[in-house]
What we know:
The chain is an alpha+beta fold. The chain has a domain at 13-94: Winged helix-like DNA-binding domain superfamily/Winged helix DNA-binding domain (Arc Repressor Mutant, subunit A, Orthogonal Bundle). The chain has helices at 22-30, 35-43, 49-55, 61-73, 95-98, 101-114, 121-134; strands at 4-6, 12-14, 77-83, 88-93. It starts with a strand and ends in a 24-residue tail after the last helix.
Amino acid sequence: xxxxxxxxxxxxxxxxxxxxxxxxxxxxxxxxxxxxxxxxxxxxxxxxxxxxxxxxxxxxxxxxxxxxxxxxxxxxxxxxxxxxxxxxxxxxxxxxxxxxxxxxxxxxxxxxxxxxxxxxxxxxxxxxxxxxxxxxxxxxxxxxxxxxxxxxxxxxxx
Length: 158
């Protein structure tokens, strides 16, 4: 199930929660599996289709194409051809898409605190980089716990 429907006019219509809520409307656009990981990689500077496919281990080429097309349709990403034969494109976040950086950062912080501090590839890479640059042995560097973040401001009362 792809979550998209072709209308008679040729424009793609996507599934929706159908709720008049900013969170639901946001999830209508970025809530599909892989979508935020694509945004994450675009934020990191990965722009070519093949590079995105390589960085997202497990995503099919059809699904990546579908998710990118949705992001382009929604105005979060632009698609620019850099080669016509064969057609090759680069994808770049628009201003609207770049503003998702704070969302991705917040999910990263939450994930490292509650779903495996020290297991994030970004953190291992930084640790390995520091070990290599400082000429240390891995045993010389101890793992530390994530600092406790300040309580988040509640948007809604229970």
